[in-house]
Design brief:
CATH topology of the largest domain: Growth Hormone, Chain: A
Distance between the termini: 65 Å
Number of helices: 15
Shape: globular
Largest sheet: none
Radius of gyration: 24 Å
Order of helices and strands: HHHHHHHHHHHHHHH
Strand content: under 5%
Number of strands: 0
CATH architecture of the largest domain: Up-down Bundle
Structural class: mainly alpha
CATH class of the largest domain: Mainly Alpha
Oligomer: single chain
Length: 462
């Protein structure tokens, strides 16, 4: 096997093992650590630390210790979060959330750098186009990585399904305060609901042990089998190490300066919407609808449905966009989310409507696939000359959406959160439509100028 391909597979399976653990834990936080909103508070801290970390940590760490050991060290940061969940409290989860957040940015930056360097060097050696090989490597990585959402949630459902309380008598269950009616200030009054009963400590420790072991295996896999790669390019072009020598404040300033582009400012709400909608599904739907009505052991199965639909539709809509255009897909996703949010407001969840608990996340996953693929594509096309600053803004505003969604999760009723989602979605789409309108006008004016130039040239020829 080619050395470069071997390294890509090692990185891919390392991330698969690591995010099998973190993805499963993330889906369970609002249900597993519901007391005083500790679970969602920790998720909010993670994304807040990730925003700060992405501004300056990755270039410094990657330059000092290289891509391989940056990945190893960052993975260890994720393991601390799994360990913190063994004894969840404000003194264990919050510090480990900060550690994970600061490790997240260099982890992804090092992965991207490693895959890009490997692809370019193999292409140079094989006489192929570097961009094509890099795209193939990233495609292979995400093919393996995306399945982590399935495995992590499957493990949690199988483990928690072993509890004797896993089968509930729906006739005895109290669904009055499930769904949109779930409010923080009535949580105490519904604590005796049979469906919100926690799994036994032994099962929780078993699950956390598996997740921690999965993270440790990821670290060992990368440490032992991944080849170290020099940041120094083998050609005479400006190499990555030179790029990293740019002052950090200059990169931050470039990210902020990009906000002078009116299009970037107009796209902020729709970018934040991506964080809002993912945060709602992971933090509120799993707790207030699934755990409250069916039990915590169904959270994993529901999130598997979301992840699988998301992955399939990402592939489908990526190909479909060339025939329909992105405006149609954005409107389609808006219609799906708007309909599901209204349904969440009206629906009174109970165990008798079992299929609906899976239909809604499947629809949500379909819409999320459009938001992820098309918003990234939109940024790449609109800001072709300033891609780095544009995608830095994308990560910043999406992460801020996560922070806000998880931050207010413990203070507001689910119905209020749904109305906030509707407001952000409508505002984001209105401003996005204005951006598209501006671009259409700009293209039309260019075409008119081009036609007038052509006609002038023809007259001169005559």
């Amino acid at each position: 096997m080619d050395r470069h391909l071997k390294n890509i597979l090692v990185v891919s399976f390392g991330f698969l093992l690591l995010f099998t653990a973190f993805g499963g834990l993330q889906s369970l936080q609002s249900s597993l650590n519901a007391d005083e909103g500790l679970g969602v508070a920790s998720l909010s801290i993670i994304y807040g630390a990730l925003i700060i970390s992405s501004m300056f940590v990755p270039p410094i760490v990657i330059k000092k210790i290289g891509c391989k050991w940056t990945i190893v060290g960052s993975m260890c940061c994720y393991i601390t979060y799994s360990l913190g969940n063994f004894y969840p409290s404000w003194y264990t989860l919050i510090p480990t959330s900060v550690i994970l957040g600061f490790g997240g940015a260099p982890l992804w930056a090092a992965k991207c750098t490693y895959l890009t360097l490997s692809g370019n060097r193999y292409a140079e050696k094989a006489g192929k186009v570097g961009k094509d090989i890099v795209n193939q490597y990233f495609g292979l990585f995400f093919l393996i990585f995306q399945s982590s959402g399935v495995w992590g949630n499957l493990i949690s459902s199988l483990i928690f399904g072993q509890t004797p309380d896993a089968v509930y008598n729906s006739s005895l269950s109290n669904y009055t305060h499930c769904g949109a009616n779930d409010c923080p200030y009535i949580e105490v009054n519904t604590a005796n609901s049979t469906n919100s009963k926690q799994p036994t400590k032994s099962l929780i420790y078993t699950l956390l042990g598996i997740y921690t072991g999965s993270g440790v295996l990821a670290v060992l896999l990368i440490s032992i089998f991944l080849d170290n790669i020099s940041l120094k390019s083998e050609n005479k072009e400006k190499d990555i190490e030179d790029i990293k020598d740019e002052p950090i404040w200059l990169k931050i300033l470039e990210t902020l300066r990009h906000l002078k582009d009116i299009r970037q400012c107009l796209l902020i709400p729709i970018t934040m919407w991506s964080g809002f909608e993912q945060g709602f599904l992971a933090g509120d739907y799993t707790k207030s609808y699934v755990t409250c009505s069916l039990g915590i052991h169904y959270v994993g199965y529901v999130m598997i449905c979301f992840a699988a639909t998301n992955a399939l539709c990402s592939l489908l809509f990526g190909k479909l966009s060339q025939y329909t255009g992105r405006i149609f897909l954005f409107c389609f996703a808006t219609a799906i989310n708007f309909s599901v949010i209204v349904a969440f407001l009206l629906w009174k969840p109970n165990a008798h409507e079992f299929a609906m608990f899976f239909v809604f996340p499947a629809l949500w996953g379909m819409a999320d696939a459009i938001w992820q693929t098309q918003t990234n594509s939109l940024y790449g096309l609109l800001f072709d000359d300033h891609k780095e600053a544009a995608f830095a803004n994308y990560r910043l505003w999406e992460s801020l959406g996560f922070v806000i969604a998880y931050g207010y999760s413990t203070f507001l009723c689910v119905s209020v959160k749904l109305y906030i989602l509707l407001a952000v979605l409508v505002l984001g789409m209105v401003l996005y439509a204005y951006v598209e309108h501006r671009e259409k006008k700009k293209e039309s004016s260019k075409m008119v100028e081009r036609d007038s130039d052509d006609s002038l040239d023809n007259q001169m020829v005559k």
